[in-house]
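Notes from the pairing session

We agreed to fold both candidates in a single pass and log them together. This is the raw record for the first candidate, unedited. Please don't reformat it; downstream parsing expects exactly this layout.

Candidate A
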Amino acid sequence: MELTDARRTLYEWVANPALRHHMECVAACMGAYAMRVDPPQRARWMLAGLMHDLDWERHPTAAEHPRVAVAFLRERGVDETVLHAIMAHAPYTGTLRDTPMAKHLFAVDELAGFIVACGKVRPDGIATLEPASVRKKLKNLSFAAAVSRDDIATGAAEVGSTEDEHFALCLAAIREMREGIAE
């Protein structure tokens, strides 16, 4: 599945603009990490990010998400490495994060959402948001309370980055993606 087809599928399956935006942000972060880890496979890494929550709106239970999306994508010939990463981003599936793609997808998922939340409370959005500001907001447990701080810390460690390096890479990727888009 090409990214163009994936975006079409995204718009067919996901009505919520905030969820679509989240999936695009995760894809951008995955693309940035792929350039460090596996440049020739950048499109596949971005595909994993773009499709990771495809079924969340229709099938938000642990019994179905992300299994429904993985079955759908498998029928369309999506590579098993991408499908494995999508399964592994949801720890309750029992799928091990034993590939670089799976580790990075888990690492960027919660962080991308948190960065967007940080931008929503700033006059200039994420334009001047720095890793230190993200770290400070993480300490405020009532801010974006649904975001797992443990998952963010675990993800950074699993990909071998300091939290500040992890935050900086994802901030830059989301900024680049959002360039010219109002917050």
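Candidate B (folded immediately after A)
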Amino acid sequence: MLHVYKTYFPDTWGGLEQAILQICRSTAALGAENTIFTLSHDPSPGHIERAEADVYRYPISADFASCPVSARAFLAFRRHVAKTDVVHYHFPWPFADILDMLRPRHIPAVITYHSDIVRQRALLRFYRPLMRYFLGAAEKVVATSANYLRSSEELQRLKCRVEVIPFGLDEASYPGADPARLDHWRAVYGDRFFLFIGVLRYYKGLHILLNAARGAGYKILIIGAGPTERELKGLAAELALDNVEFLGFLPETDKVALLKLCRGVVFPSHLRSEAFGISLLEAAMFGKPMVSSEIGTGTSFVNIDGVTGIVAPPNDPASLREAMDRIQADDVLAEDMGRAARLRYERLFTAEKMGRRYLELYKGLLGWAPKDLTETWPGTIG
């Protein structure tokens, strides 16, 4: 049994949390055993047993420049990591850089590199030595797209040890469309609205979307909550937007119903903190055309301009609006792009493909021959 120990930034990161659970679910289906290590604001968070992984959460002791740390986590990490085969980190989270110093060096480490440091650039010059030591100590670093690998200075420094493994989604992990919820949302919003899904953060570009929405003859629905919610609602009121609705967090059944009904998914992220875009994968999985911005990251690996949707210049409300208008006005274009998005999902972005790639990576670090793997895990590893 291959045991993988994963660490990730505490609390809900929206798409990141979904990505990590999908990695665990897809590798567990192939026989791997996963443990997730994270922190929590809950003073006694404890242990959660999930089908895809055992989750251990430890209380946050302090927060430095948006980086939570935990005193109790040090001893726990040392205890957990001693029983594992591979440690899998998710970057950036500077506390994990420190924890890695406790990892016995005979246990290999993998780092999935989600994003460059963008917002805390002033602190980066102090953090950079630790960051580079941490990245350099890992046996493998995973980029989630070739786009991000090409455009990231840090990944280019590590290029000889970087492997590209895109995120994938397991369609079976999503609930089926509930006819009652479909009827409910159709009665409220129809089936020609645009949909945004995600945590409301500074890099999501929602202020750009709100400016693009002025005067549009269709609804734009925003699913999610987060740090910029109050500011965004204030901007929507200032712009007198009666065609934008903030729906907050919704149950998965409602999210699926709205994905089924929407005209397309809009994803206006304008900064490199947005490395991939899990909600773009969801759009592709549901066969919906996408509107996103060109920021040199994996968003333009998921959404191919003119094929699966439209890629607009970043931080450009007029171009974003023009892209939405085109898809809204042309039924054939919307249908063709949605079909192409679904085909691209099936070809590149299933959880099964992602899980097999990660499992190959893990066993390669352990020196397990392919023959050993096919005898231990069901199915063909390819």
